[in-house]
Amino acid sequence: MDPGPFGCSAPKPQPSCARSTPTTPHTSAADPCCSNPVPKEGLVRKASALIITAGLVMTALTACASPGSAQASCDAGAASGPASKLVTVTGNLGSAPAVSFPTPLKSSTTQRSEIIAGSGQRVLPGQMVSVELNLYNGTTGAALQLGAFDGSTALPLALGDTTIAGLVDGLVCTRVGERVAVVMAPEDGLGVNDQLQIGATDSLVLVVDIVKAFLPRADGEEQAVANGLPAVVLDADGTPGIVLPSGDMPTGLEVGLLKKGAGEKVPADSTVVIHYTGLLWAGDTVFESTWATRSPRVAALGDLPEGLATALTGQTVGSQLVVVVPPDLGFGPETQDKVPGGSTLVYAVDILGID
């Protein structure tokens, strides 16, 4: 992960991209002189000041929205407003849009307007989506990031607490296949960012295609699990709790299939989208949980502890596993962050998709 909120260098000044007056409408399609692509992972990092001021960190797991209720009555997310209606977008899904808006374009609230209706499933709070997007400074009209919109520059975004608030509000309750224009209020955005030339009062303008939505939670058929493995109990929204058995701690890798999904099998060299809770067997304490931030993780199997990667390989999307990982297949003898050296780990994992 890069250290900055977007992880890119500041846009290089280009004479042909200059705006003559503040009120000149800004137009952009796949304009190479204004393009400044950034790594995919940069968008899911908040500026440190926003972590404090936006108050996005959850204080209780029960604050997560229930997938059932959100799907039925999706009333979250930003509404259309006068600022987002000023963004003109032409072009078809699957191709780079032409975007025009008057500058300076400012809004004290984050707003969203539908450009092209989607016919797919609604996107839920806390869900992982794949999107194509263009990003502009609403004050100057400068392009901060331009996507190809052909799938080659699609990036995964978790609509939870690890993504800036304006982007979450702008995309929650859209549909797969939808294109939207979002005007993000300064307080919901990246804050002051000298590298990207974003000022304190600058709104951000985005044009976003919702390409794909991954499962919000494991949806497979429940399976009988062998005795002796930790039990997993689920909250109403799918948040797992792990209950250790009273017997001896296992010394080898143990895998229990709790739910068997109907999706594709996970190849050994794949990148997966997972929701998980990790527990230290000794002390019965949680050391990490994606559910706590409502943000599934996108991870290459090679970046996961060996035992967890082995357990996931060959399983199907939609499945839920409980995995006991011995130290030699986990983090080994060295202490890493909240995991003491030599720890046996227990994971409850939902396989949500393959990226």
Automatic annotation (TrEMBL):
<feature type="domain" description="PPIase FKBP-type">
    <location>
        <begin position="126"/>
        <end position="214"/>
    </location>
</feature>
<comment type="similarity">
    <text>Belongs to the FKBP-type PPIase family.</text>
</comment>
<protein>
    <recommendedName>
        <fullName>peptidylprolyl isomerase</fullName>
        <ecNumber>5.2.1.8</ecNumber>
    </recommendedName>
</protein>
<dbReference type="InterPro" id="IPR046357">
    <property type="entry name" value="PPIase_dom_sf"/>
</dbReference>
<feature type="region of interest" description="Disordered">
    <location>
        <begin position="1"/>
        <end position="33"/>
    </location>
</feature>
<feature type="compositionally biased region" description="Polar residues">
    <location>
        <begin position="17"/>
        <end position="27"/>
    </location>
</feature>
<dbReference type="GO" id="GO:0003755">
    <property type="term" value="F:peptidyl-prolyl cis-trans isomerase activity"/>
</dbReference>
<keyword id="KW-0697">Rotamase</keyword>
<feature type="domain" description="PPIase FKBP-type">
    <location>
        <begin position="269"/>
        <end position="355"/>
    </location>
</feature>
<dbReference type="InterPro" id="IPR001179">
    <property type="entry name" value="PPIase_FKBP_dom"/>
</dbReference>
<dbReference type="Pfam" id="PF00254">
    <property type="entry name" value="FKBP_C"/>
</dbReference>
<keyword id="KW-0413">Isomerase</keyword>
